[in-house]
Amino acid sequence: MKFKNNALQQAIKFALATTTAGLFVSGSVVAAEQAAEETKVNKNVEKIAVVGTRSAPRSIGDSPVPIDIIGGEELDKGGNTDMLELLKGSVPSFNVHQNPISDAASLVRPANLRGLPSDSTLVLVNGKRRHRASVIAFLGGGINDGAQGADISVIPSIALKQVEVLRDGAAAQYGSDAIAGVMNFVLKDASEGGSFEIRQGEYYEGDGDTTQISGNVGLPFTDSGFANLSFQYKTADATSRSVQRPDAAALNAAGVPDVSSLAQVWGAPEVDDDISIFGNIGLDLSNTSQFYMFGNYSERDVRGGFYYRNPHTRPGVYSNDGGETLLVGDLTGDMSGNCPTNILIDDNVLDNPDYINGVANNPDCFAFNEMLPGGFTPNFGGNITDTALTIGTKGEITSGFLEGAYYDLSGTVGYNESRYFIYDTINASLGPDSPRDFSPGKYSQLEKNFNADLSKGFDFGLAYDVNVAGGLEWHEETFTVVSGDEASFTAGPLTEQGFGIGSNGFPGFKPSDAGEYTRRNYAAYVDVEAPFTEDFLMGLALRYEDYDSFGSTTNYKLTAQYHLTEDLNVRGSISTGFRAPTVGQANVSNVQTNLSSGVLVDSALLPPTNPIAVQLGGTELEPEESQSYTFGAVWTIGDLFFTVDYYNIQVDDRISQSDKIELSQADKDTLEAAGVPNVQNLAQVSFFTNDFDTTTQGIDAVANYSTDLLGGSSTFSLAYNWNDTEVTKSTDITGEFKVSRLENDLPNHRATLSWAQQWENFSAFTRVNYYGEYQGVHVDYDATAKTADAAVTVDAEVTYFLTEELSFSVGATNLFDQEAEKLDFYDSTGIPNNNWGGKYYETSPYGINGGFYYVKATYTF
After folding, report:
1. Average pLDDT estimate for 687-699
2. Element (H, E) at 283
3. I want to staple 10 with a disulfide (CB 3.0 to 4.6 A). Which of 195, 410, 588, 621 is the partner?
4. Percent of the chain, pLDDT > 70?
5. In the record, which residues are listed under signal peptide (predicted)?
6. What's the DSSP call for residue 510?
7. What is each CA distance from 362 to 29, 372, 624, in whole angstroms?
């Protein structure tokens, strides 16, 4: 089938940040090259980018496409321990939510660059494609529903020399996923020195205690190479920004025992034994060739809250008619227990004589109120393992027709595994014999890449050599589903009596769900950069890619840059791109718990080719296609560096999870016949589909200025992003609320203003973050939506250098404890309604946990 074209942390004194004139824009962009050259310390920080070009690395001021560079030292001042949060504070067009009670999205959080989902941004490490996570964000907060991107949270900042963020479509250069842009994490490559750091902090509320120990060391690898090794170990306690649910409070007031004081918790999950090890090795084989190898091993355990199961109303456990009558099971096996089926539920069913006589005092009859009278709240968690290894060689060809050409041959293997656990729940169909903890199974993602790249300059009589690059790539990805323990999916003896099958909240994967799904593709590309004059540069990239599942595509990118004056140049690009559906998206099935019209229900995610999905509008997934363009200007005058770029990204046939569709009884009968578990308790189904088109446009503006101030040196940095997404076409299965979330959940306006100040023994860093209005949403429920107010947060850090090797810092993120938007929605009678125990809208772009303070000690050698 064819489809259409279209980086204990190397502690660097704050002097590095402050005297590096313009190296950081809101911690994100290298400033004027002239100012950088005037600052001696700048030689320690990269001022050039590898990403975005196939020719020699160049200064970002001379790049025809917008690139941000975040130095490793700047990441160290971010005050956070999560790479996602560090990047959010540095790149205004990068957004990430905390995702409480969001199934697997709580384990690997999806992020957004320029308003597009996480799998629309290509992630590289040392210029090589990074494998995606095995987690699919089934509850991704609207924008990321169904996204399967790379897990960049495993990358420790101490391992990084810099992060390069290409804010431009680049599928013609790098292949699938590069619609929103490219993020290249460049590992440190020093052969000596290093640092160790200990950081401790907690939120102002007194929870979320976080400890991080990290280190980096550079070692010689013979006389001609380096081995740079980094590690990070972290633990983080859970947080809670919750109030008691009204229904749980009413149960407690009625005398129902064992009701938790906080039946449902909204907050960050607990993270234990989060270990990440990165290595980067290089060895000169000769004067013109080099061997390289880099990779990582990372693992963490995550455990977070889930929805409360009310002991009067939870379907498939306590009641199947919304809480009117109690669900009672007959344990005799031959239905001879004469168990009551019409026990009415009032404020406390435990006081009902029919319950006391017919269930509590009848050994043949059973209700879960005997076992769990106060209801129960499952905890959902997982063990996430991530590892990768890249081996290659690169160098210069010294003879023959290609003499002077540069080659790069490499192979990469990446693997991510998510093994799920659910605690404090039940398999209701097993009755009193049900265990309380389950392992529902696991997903894994295995990717293999082999690349051959070649580039050479040719003299065509232009201002400089024309660089011609080309290459081949072979890519294979395999998504695997492994079944869970038997108790997590088995249909127990109470199944036919209306009790739900499988571990409640996350039923296990049955053996019939298990499988291994593989796809292969190969690509060929050519990339030409021609300097027609000293002031005018143009580039053209073409890429052909063929997939064994759905066909081939050819994409292009055209770039240009023109120096109007010595201090001012204009730049622009136009390109087509694509994102192939992931193997997981095309084949995964899952049962999840979510809220529908304020009611907790189970819904099934089906493969798009499942007969029921097809009946409801599902079809085989096709690639997304994009057309994008950007144009802007770079202005350098003295110590001031300023860039502004407009972008426009049109994406057709976007892949996402459909709106959840209500099931008819006929649909349920068909699903049951097909072997889908617990069908009669399912209320909805969804599937992945190419169901809408969007146009995203925006402006990025960056300014940088350095000067001497207050007896020391100062750097001021300002970055602003305006981003707007419009759904230009949608189908009935997209849903109006989904459209609203795509268009309104993220703030249209983001800005950061930072001031870094350096004295002889002290340094200070302050960053002011502005978040414009956004759509506040809670529990993925349209009736909760509102326009939330704009807000400002402040981050600050002060460092004292005791010696040249030892420094101490104290800092805070959200220094003034700016609260997220409080919930204020009402029920149909106008009475305030917060039946889910939250305090804040979970779509808050700066999170719901409030201020966080920390101290750290750094030793550099």
Report:
1. 93
2. strand 270-284
3. 195
4. 90
5. 1-31
6. P
7. 72, 17, 60
Distance between CA atoms of 642 and 619, rounded to whole angstroms?
47
Give the list of residues 6+ apart from residue 428 with CB closer than 8 angstroms, or none: 316, 317, 368, 434, 492, 494, 499, 500, 501, 504
> Using alpha carbons only, what angle is made at residue 252 by residues 246 and 257, rounded to the nearest 5 degrees?
140
pLDDT above 90 covers a percentage of the chain that reads 68
In 758-820, which ranges are continuous DSSP H helix? none
pTM as predicted:
0.89
Helices (H), 654-731: 665-673
Tokens 């809480």, residue located? 323
pLDDT digits (tens, 9 = 90+) for 477-512: 999 999 999 999 999 999 999 999 999 989 999 998
Segment 120-131 shows an average pLDDT of 96
Sign of CA dihedral 840, 842, 846, 848: positive
What DSSP string describes 297-344? EEEEEEEE----B-TTT-TTTT-SSSSSB---EE-SSSS-S---S--B
Could you tell me the two tokens for 115?
């308003």
What is the C-alpha to C-alpha distance for residues 707 and 716, in angstroms, rounded to an integer? 9
**Which residue has 């950061």 as its token pair?**
752
Give the model confidence (pLDDT) of 635-666 as tens digits: 998 888 999 999 999 999 998 888 888 878 88
How buried is 287 (Cβ within 10 angstroms: 0-12 exposed, 13-18 middle, 19+ buried)? exposed
Burial of 173 (0-12, 13-18, 19+ CB in 10 A): buried
Per-residue buried b or exposed e for 571-580, using 16+ beta carbons within 10 Å of the residue's own CB = bbbbbbbbbb
Alpha-helix runs per DSSP H in 608-726: 611-615, 665-673
Contact 181, 124 (CB under 8 A): no
Q: In this structure, what are the phi and psi dihedrals at residue 297, rounded to the nearest 5 degrees?
A: -135, 125
The string of pLDDT tens digits covering residues 506-553 is 999 999 889 999 999 999 999 999 999 999 999 999 999 999 988 899
Q: d(Cα 846, Cα 746) in Å, to the nearest integer?
A: 11
